[in-house]
């Protein structure tokens, strides 16, 4: 079983580290690094998944990979990326409470600036509930949100890449 996940751990670790590096770099460049970090996640996750699945196929499994093997290796890879992202961002925000307050203020300000548009689309009650939710946000919320946005595209890209790389020994 370990041979199935060697590449998943390796490239999951690489993807998680790259995600944290992007968060740290964006922290110095922007007030709220979370939104742009999600975009970098959409690049990092599929690249890490492709490398993990390709490595597994070429170097661990004699040039073959089934859809099920691809899904298994991909699942471990994107979950590892999400877990590292969660822990890293949570630690960064706990070590830098000022950064958390800047992110929170930026999100509240964005909601206030977009109030008319949001109210016209979803109504006043939904806007007020969202504003209250953002004002009550905690550090874990930011880390969980980033992790979720690594898992969702991770599943999507795992399916696609597993189909593309699939080659059975028959």
Automatic annotation (TrEMBL):
The keyword Secreted does not apply. InterPro entries: DUF4199. The keyword Transmembrane applies. Keywords: Membrane, Transmembrane, Transmembrane helix. The chain crosses the membrane at residues 7-29, 35-53, 73-93, 147-165. It holds the Pfam family DUF4199. It comes from the Bacteria. This is DUF4199 domain-containing protein. It comes from Algoriphagus pacificus.
